[in-house]
């Protein structure tokens, strides 16, 4: 069942107001007749001309909006100077109400154009269907002036212009939830490496569980890739790295490691390099983003370590890759564990807890319960030390000076961090990142 209807009047010229009003009235009438039981939310998208006020634009359509009582509280006119701005505003309204099934009524020749905007601004969470805006035969002047037939591919330059329009609009948006904040470790020498762990502030993602500096997009979440790209651009500006030389692990919750410059695996949870100016990153929204730095051989790495990856030894696999590829000495490698779910909050079924108990009984609390508490950080430290990393070269939540602590519990700090454990399926993601300075 359609949950929302978007009527796209954006391309229709303002000097034909009477025709537009009639067109809108007929379209709303058809929606109302088809929606006697369940009235959908209706958004009318129109162009705000340069120098005009939004209120004036909306008032010009009021005669066509009167009389639709069943739609009255569910009807909104959205005016903006660009399609990107108007459609993004509509998306915000849809997300506020958790709506996903949308019908778009629009002029035929706008359909392929609209699909490009949708591909950039929406994810697979949303379902769209399209219906032609019924323009009366005697209203030929309402047709869009385009030299392209429906179904033809948009020229690549048009697609590039659409992407540029969206990016410019997103860049103009204010940061949400405060300034962008980066946590840094005193263990990693900042004269050689650029590194940090992000928090959730300072981006443009507006959905509560994703707000605001979400740095991962997937088909199951409502934050599109282009918004994540803008958040990353802002992070890169603040941190001082090149977003075009940014490489994030392809999470598989296992222990494969990618060596920069060699054939890239399909999936991997660790990544290493000795190239300057290349930024490596690992995501985390409870799982541990782990950073590795060797100031002697000038090599670095990043790993994503959830409970499965921890048991599979992803951190030591990343260390071993640095040793074998770059000749690193185990005793020179520094390891920092970033914000992640702590033993105060994280629970696993008893069968999984047994594996951590085998590493060290202290990794498990309330072992005899159905869902014991697990300390994946302690398990990571123990496996690293057993592998040859010096205890003093590992920074985690066992640090004595709490002013130096950056391994916060993500579940305990909703104001600072995202948490899958706490927020459910539509969760945001922070990252740990590192690069070798030029």
From TrEMBL:
Its main location: cytoplasm. One of its GO terms (biological process) is innate immune response. It is found in: Cytoplasm; Endoplasmic reticulum; Nucleus; Peroxisome. Its EC number is 2.4.2.1, 2.4.2.28, 3.5.4.4. GO terms for molecular function: copper ion binding; hydrolase activity; S-methyl-5-thioadenosine phosphorylase activity. InterPro entries: Cu_polyphenol_OxRdtase, Cu_polyphenol_OxRdtase_sf, Cytotoxic_necrot_fac-like_cat. Interacts with FASN. Interacts with SDHA. Interacts with ATF6, EIF2AK3 and ERN1. This is Purine nucleoside phosphorylase LACC1. It comes from Molothrus ater (Brown-headed cowbird). The gene is Lacc1.
């Amino acid at each position: 069942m359609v949950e929302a209807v978007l009527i796209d009047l954006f391309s229709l010229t303002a000097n034909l107001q009477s025709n537009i009003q009639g067109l809108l009235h007929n379209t709303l009438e058809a929606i109302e007749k088809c929606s006697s039981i369940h009235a959908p939310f209706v958004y009318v998208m129109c162009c705000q001309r340069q120098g005009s006020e939004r209120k004036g634009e909306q008032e010009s359509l009021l005669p066509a909006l009167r009389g639709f009582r069943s739609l009255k509280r569910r009807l909104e006119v959205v005016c903006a100077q660009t399609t990107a701005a108007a459609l993004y505003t509509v998306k915000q309204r849809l997300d506020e109400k958790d709506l996903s099934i949308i019908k778009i009524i629009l002029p035929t020749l706008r359909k392929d154009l609209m699909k490009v905007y949708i591909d950039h601004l929406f994810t697979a969470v949303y379902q769209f269907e399209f219906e032609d805006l019924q323009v009366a035969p005697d209203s030929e002047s309402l047709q869009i002036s385009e030299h392209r037939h429906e179904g033809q591919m948009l020229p690549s330059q048009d697609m590039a212009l659409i992407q540029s329009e969206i990016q410019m609009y997103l860049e103009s948006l204010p940061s949400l939830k405060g300034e962008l904040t980066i946590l840094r470790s005193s263990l990693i020498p900042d004269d050689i490496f650029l590194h940090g762990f992000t928090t959730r502030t300072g981006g443009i993602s507006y959905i509560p569980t994703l707000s605001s500096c979400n740095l991962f997009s997937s088909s199951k979440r409502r934050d599109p890739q282009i918004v994540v790209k803008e958040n990353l651009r802002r992070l890169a500006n603040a941190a001082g790295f090149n977003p075009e030389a940014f490489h994030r692990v392809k999470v598989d919750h296992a222990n494969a490691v990618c060596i920069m410059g060699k054939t890239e695996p399909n999936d991997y949870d660790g990544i290493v390099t000795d190239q300057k100016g290349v930024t490596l990153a690992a995501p985390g929204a409870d799982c541990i983003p782990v950073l590795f730095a060797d100031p002697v051989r000038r090599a670095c790495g990043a790993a994503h370590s959830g409970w499965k990856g921890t048991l599979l030894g992803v951190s030591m696999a990343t260390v071993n890759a640095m040793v074998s590829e770059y000749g690193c000495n185990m005793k020179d490698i520094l390891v920092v564990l970033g914000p992640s779910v702590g033993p105060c909050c994280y629970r696993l079924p008893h069968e999984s807890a047994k594996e951590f108990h085998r590493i060290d009984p202290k990794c498990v609390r309330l072992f005899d319960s159905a869902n014991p508490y697990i300390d994946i950080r302690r398990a990571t430290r123990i496996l690293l030390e057993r592998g040859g990393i010096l205890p003093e070269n590992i920074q985690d939540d066992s640090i004595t000076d709490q002013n130096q602590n950056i391994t916060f519990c993500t579940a305990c700090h909703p104001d600072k961090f995202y948490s899958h454990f706490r927020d459910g399926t539509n969760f945001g993601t922070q990252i740990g990142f590192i690069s070798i300075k030029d």
